[in-house]
Amino acid sequence: MASYDVIVIGAGPGGYVSAIRCAQLGLKTAIVEGRETLGGTCLNVGCIPSKALLHATHQLHEAEHNFAKMGLKGKSPSVDWNQMKAYKDEVIGQNTGGVEFLMKKNKIDWLKGWASIPAAGKVKVGDDIHETKNIVIASGSVPSALPGVTVDNDAGVVVDSTGALELPKVPKKMVVIGAGVIGLELGSVYARLGSEVTVVEYMDAVCPGMDKDVQRTFKKILEKQGLTFVMGAAVQGVEASKTKAKVKYQPKAGGDEQVIDADVVLVATGRKPYAEGLGLDALGVEMTQRGQIAVNAQWQTNVPGIYAIGDVIEGPMLAHKAEDEGMAAAEVIAGKHGHVNYGVIPGVVYTTPEVATVGATEDALKAEGRKIKVGKFNFMGNGRAKAVGQGEGFVKLIADAETDRVLGAAIIGPAAGDLIHEICVGMEFGASAEDIALTCHAHPTFSEAVREAALALGDGAIHS
Ligand code: FAD
């Protein structure tokens, strides 16, 4: 069998990006993937298909709710759900095909099948054992289970996010368990398609851990879009028949058990690291208490020559975090310096409006006793946002009260997922809020709202 400098296990955004960087750095590289296509969770059943459906249903929402007032009159489009899924599949195919092209371009061998590690320096795929100096485990994550709830994506009644991307028809009533990013994105898709969507959440706020102002505004906006929320509800179980389900929950505030009927229940209560079948136990690879592979600051496990990155290790389960770790681990393997700044990893929710955050929250900084100042600017004061009918939401910028250094931001509004990067770059360069405020921003752009929030931290925003 061939022998390699690096074998990467798992071709998600962490794994395939790591493999490319390894190859670029002159290392003989192979990647192992058990799925039929490359790209991992993100490209096959995660980021990309969900964004394709969000995009398609956003167009529908615009046509139904906003076209007429702009003078665009006439029949709204009708939904051909099978065609919409075909569109989503085409988008997936373009992306996974693109990764396959990149593997070939970079002369990375794709070893097809499920890998195990019989010993350090060896990777078994099927009956073949390949020799390698280094192994990068990028085996990702899978949806986590909820006690009392059996997911069956094929039956299509109680599903996880993977099943929700493939429902045979648009349900009349959908219950989403979990008001996190995945639940709200997919809940939005179905609400726009006409489903009655009820989101049941154990905590008292959506997107736990996010800026509180954003949580409140986000929930209100989603309610206006037709989603219903049951907060502080502990789901006890789901009873499913062939076509219907009953979700039972106990209100945390007390009272009797409640039941909600649904045609489809989406269980979106989080994801867990996936390392099954790799043989890590026998190798003595240390794991964290939460089932993640334990690594040091160089993404090395306790077994020399074995690295791990992405969703299977600690940290936010995000594609771009996995990619950054993939590149950094490759640099380390090549004897260079690899670095990821975990303080500046943006998080985005791709609903309309989008929500984006980076750095510390106002609450966390206050709890630390840090002296901070907060600048806020509403999109209602932004000409471009009004021109496109998206004046809801705001930019919140947080800076150190003494040094003016930007410590974090939370944005809810148009293009928030893009706007956040101005702040990320600023934070990487140690920018002060004044640096952003003194930077000329083109008019009329959404990004002027970021500048105005920075101005609000100084002598005051102009348009509020
Ligand atoms: P994965 O993408 O999970 O890839 C791991 C790969 O390893 C899989 O293909 C698996 O088949 C393979 N594998 C595992 N074990 C083996 C083995 N033994 N042998 C061979 N192959 C193996 N993140 C964002 O940043 N933005 C988003 O908008 C976003 N949206 C999402 C929407 C949904 C519905 C979901 C489910 C997730 C979303 N995520 C999003 C999260 C994102 O998909 C993950 O954070 C990201 O895919 C993690 O990358 P990874 O490379 O660590 O692992």
Tell me what you see in this structure:
The protein is α/β, with parallel strands linked by helices. It has three domains: 4-143 and 272-334, FAD/NAD(P)-binding domain (3-Layer(bba) Sandwich); 153-269, 3-Layer(bba) Sandwich (FAD/NAD(P)-binding domain); 346-456, FAD/NAD-linked reductase, C-terminal dimerisation domain (Enolase-like, domain 1, 2-Layer Sandwich). The chain has 14 helices and 22 strands. The protein has helices at 13-24, 40-45, 47-65, 81-105, 161-164, 181-192, 212-224, 280-283, 319-333, 362-367, 383-387, 416-428, 433-437, 448-456, and strands at 3-9, 29-33, 109-112, 115-119, 122-125, 128-137, 141-143, 158-159, 173-177, 196-200, 228-230, 233-240, 245-251, 258-262, 264-267, 271-273, 306-308, 347-349, 354-359, 372-378, 394-400, 406-413. The strands form five sheets. Strands 1, 2, 3, 4, 5, 6 and 17 form a seven-stranded mixed beta sheet that branches. Strands 8-15-9-10-11 form a five-stranded parallel beta sheet. Strands 18-19-22-21-20 form a five-stranded antiparallel beta sheet, with helices on both faces. Helix 1 runs parallel beside helix 9 (319-333) and helix 3 runs antiparallel to helix 4 (81-105). The protein is globular, with a radius of gyration of 23 Å. The model has no long low-confidence stretch (mean pLDDT 97).
